[in-house]
# Entry
Amino acid sequence: MEKIAIIDLGSNTARLLLVDVKDNGHFQIVDQLKEAPRLGEGMERDGFLKPARIQETIKTLKMFRKLCDANGVEKIIAVATAAVRRARNQRSFLDEVSATCGIKLRVLSAEEEAMYVYRGVINTMDIPKGIILEIGGGSTKIVYYNRRNLLHHETLPFGAITLTELFSGDGLTPNEQAEKIEEFFTEQLKRIEWLKEVDPEVQMIGVGGSFRNLCRMTKIMKKYPLRAIHNYVVTDTDFTHVYELLKGLDLDRKKKIKGLSSGRADILPSALSAISAFKKYMNLGNVVISGSGLRTGILFNYAVPTTMDKPISDVLTYSLNSITDFYGCNLTHTDHVVNLSIQLFKQLRVLHKFPRQYLKILKVAAYLYETGKRVGFYNFEKHSGYIVLNSNIYGLSHRDMVMASFVAANTAIEDINPFDWAKYRDLVNDEDVDSVKKMGIMLRIASCFDRSLSSVVKGINCDILGDSVIMKTEVDGDATLEINSALEIGADFRKIFKKNLEIL
# Structure
């Protein structure tokens, strides 16, 4: 295992990730730090990084270096983006950082930056056709892909800081500033010819601090039950509500809004104006928030070098394997339980009548079913449910995450607490309780069928005759332990499926 650090020095913020990278291509983020030295502030006047901003940035990078040393980091991958890329005093700044902090910054080209953002998204989201908008402090990236193939990208030389500085004068009211920014941004979009070729059914994906801040604000307003940001959907209505609320307020009143970062209160309205212009010009509605962007793209390229040529083909399975690897699960046993769960889902389809997409929910629950044993054996299912709900699972909607959590945590009819279920009423409904119970029973049976961890039960064939389900097992060896364990679930099976269970 290798300990690495990734530093992303942007125009507004500087971010540090500490990561454990394993030889098998999986990684785990173990710490992170964010500061807002505003390196790009004031550059619009003459193109020079200002001394006060440079000193604040060096102070931040020294903190980052101290944290790296304390954690035994072996390699630091440090990149700088728009502000340093455009700075007329770039060379002297890079030399000063190297001399005072011991950190060698690599200045990314606009194309490299857009590619890393794309790779961060495409390797963590199961959206086959998307247009990515990332609004940084000093630049804006637009990336269009279809069928997971990159088609076009564009970098505009302005971001939240530069837009704020450009339109903050002339005695304009906040509402007038918002209108001017929208007009300006729309004119820039009209110059990008390939935007006219974008599929009208494309999904908009938001990347970067402004979108994450937008996400936090809408979640607080809705009392959203999950902490997860990745794959959160900001509806068109929610965006409009936040935008209309913010764009008319002065700075002091903005800082009092819950969820709005104090380091972004003055520049977020400009970013929202740009987002609004983009949504209108492209006729787009909801926005899916990606918690992964440039830093994740760099991380994937380092940990999984094949992603430099082509993205991970199965985002969800890669993510689940990373989690089970972290929790030290028996991977052979896990894979077998997943396989048996899938077989049961298909064999019992005439009873449960679930659509195919429910198979993804069962797969997630089966993969992570035994992770809770790392917390404690007794009631491990509850721990597993918590892990499902609080892990950063790529390629999974928030609704599916909640459903999979309850499938893993609740395997008997009396175990689903209605108060716990009610927390997620915006994501699931009362009819979903029955689905969770049925998938929970399928998962329990699949787990029992590999009780000896020997993969003795190879296959399952089910016959539904009258009031009974007859499961015929294909075995390679003595499966007495497995069959007896599964038969103990018979009473719960009868309660939920209204059928007697026989296993041969």
Summary: The chain has a mean pLDDT of 93.
